[in-house]
Amino acid sequence: MRIYVKPDKKLLGAAAAELGAQSIRAAIEARGAANIVVATGASQFEVLAALVKRDDIDWSRVTGFHLDEYVAMPDTHPASFRRYLKERFTALLPSLGAFHFIDGDVPDPGAEVARINALIARHPIDVTFAGIGENGHLAFNDPPADFETTAPFHLVTLDDRCRRQQFGEGWFPTLEDVPHRAISMTVNQIMKSGLIVLAVPDRRKAEAVRDTVEAPISPMVPAGILRRHADCHLFLDPQSTALLHKVPDTVGE
């Protein structure tokens, strides 16, 4: 895991987008297409804002997926990740080749998991843009995360700290409104990505950053497993590094 500290969120987002764009272009040059995963949430605002402005990418050759979506969440809800991505990503890239949304608002979430699993199996991921939750989660894989399942997506139950984060970020009017279940990309699927670009700003993420970088790798700190990935890059700001004993250039197991 390579670590970079940027002075503010805008510069952090621009640097993360630049690294991801390089890999997207390389994939297109190598085989004529690129497959990416994009994340949602407050930590990704600046990354996506910079990424959609890239005119050096042939977006018609890019296929996208996202990390997760709430179960029983219509895409008209302000907290819907489909709505978030339509407003901040796909609507701003009219030439985008394809984007495969997770539809959590279906009668049978298990069938939706099977559908999206079949789709991503045909699209090896070149770049995953992601963040880290306040509880150290990766996508919606809350601790203790399942490191063993080999399915690309699965149904998960959100823990209390995760739900409090969603409420605290202002996506829901009350904590009781935050759903308890979601469809999430699995840890193993994220680890299959050729490149992983993590954007993690803000003081409220400092504990999770410290544990991701310094704690023993275990399901209790899901994001820590990314230290085993061959090409993972973590972008931080001064606030999110606040609890690190030292800010290294590179960390491993």
Kindly list the characteristics that best describe this protein.
253 residues; alpha/beta; Rossmann fold; 7-stranded parallel sheet; 7 helices; 29% helix; 18% strand; globular
Describe the overall structure.
It is a single chain. β9, α7 and β10 form a beta-alpha-beta unit. By secondary structure, the protein is α/β, with parallel strands linked by helices. It has seven helices and ten strands. α1 packs across α2. The model has no long low-confidence stretch (mean pLDDT 97). 29% of the residues lie in helices and 18% in strands. It has one domain: 3-Layer(aba) Sandwich (Rossmann fold), CATH 3.40.50. The strands form two sheets. Strands 1-10-9-6-2-3-5 form a seven-stranded parallel beta sheet, with helices on both faces. Strands 4-8-7 form a three-stranded antiparallel beta sheet.
| Distance separating the two termini | 9 Å
Largest sheet: 7 strands, parallel
- The beta-strand count equals 10
Q: What is the global morphology? A: globular
Radius of gyration from the alpha-carbon trace, in angstroms:
17 Å
How are the strands of the largest sheet arranged?
1-10-9-6-2-3-5
Integer average pLDDT: 97
**What is the structural class?**
alpha/beta
Number of continuous helical runs: 7
Please report the first level of CATH classification, the CATH class.
Alpha Beta
How many separate domains?
1
CATH topology: Rossmann fold
> What ranges have pLDDT less than 50 throughout 5 or more consecutive residues?
none
What order do the SSEs take from the amino end to the carboxyl end, as H and E?
Answer: EHEHEEHEHEEHEHEHE
Helical fraction: 25-40%
Strand percentage:
15-25%
